[in-house]
Amino acid sequence: MAQVTIIDPAGTSHEINVENGTSLMQAALDNGIDGIVAECGGACSCATCHCYIDAAWVGKVNEPSSIEKDMLECVIDPQDNSRLSCQVFVSDELDGLVVTLPQAQY
Ligand code: FES
User: 68 alpha carbon to ligand 1 midpoint, in Å?
Assistant: First the structure.
């Protein structure tokens, strides 16, 4: 379990408790947080779950797969800290993680 802060496109911070093994995408949807579309349901094939990992946490989240890296080329305004939130999985080590959602997913 980790406490994660998700900042939605309007700038509102949501502090949520997330079970280990849950993706950030699923956690955001489960908590009714706006800003994620997740058209493919987490299959890493739509790139509508884009998020930005806070700089302090970039090296602590699980590494992106080659498929995720390819899909990240499809997002609007990609940054070095861009990830697909369906591919970032929460663990105890991520307690305190901060994630920002982009202004638009497509
Ligand atoms: S939900 Fe489709 S790529 Fe993440």
Answer: 9
